[in-house]
Amino acid sequence: MTELEVGQIAEVSKQITDEDVQSFAKVSGDFNPVHLDEDYAQNTIFKGRIVHGVLSVGLISSVIANELPGPGSILIKQEVKYIAPVRINDTITARVEIIELLDKGKVLLSTRCLNQNEELVIDGTALVKVL
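Now predict its structure.
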């Protein structure tokens, strides 16, 4: 593992498809019609289907586990603010940045998700323990 430093950034991008949303609904048990039923979703403030927020946040977990800090990282605490909806077929980039190195192998991260237009859709922080 490389030495961790404040300011290091890693990211992963993924287009979130209808199949992803359907699979997430089955795995999580979250069948909210705003995610699955276009007719229903058209009559909400979103004016169409949106992706489960936690599905998008899951991309942050991917960065933490695989890139930064990387394998052996355990999420201890995460704060998430949903800024804007994610739509079916949006490409979401989860970006993680080290903002503080703490004692006992803990790392404080800035965690953000942006859509294909570089619009912030999720903002937050995460506290991670590196094993």
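DSSP finds four helices and five strands in the chain.
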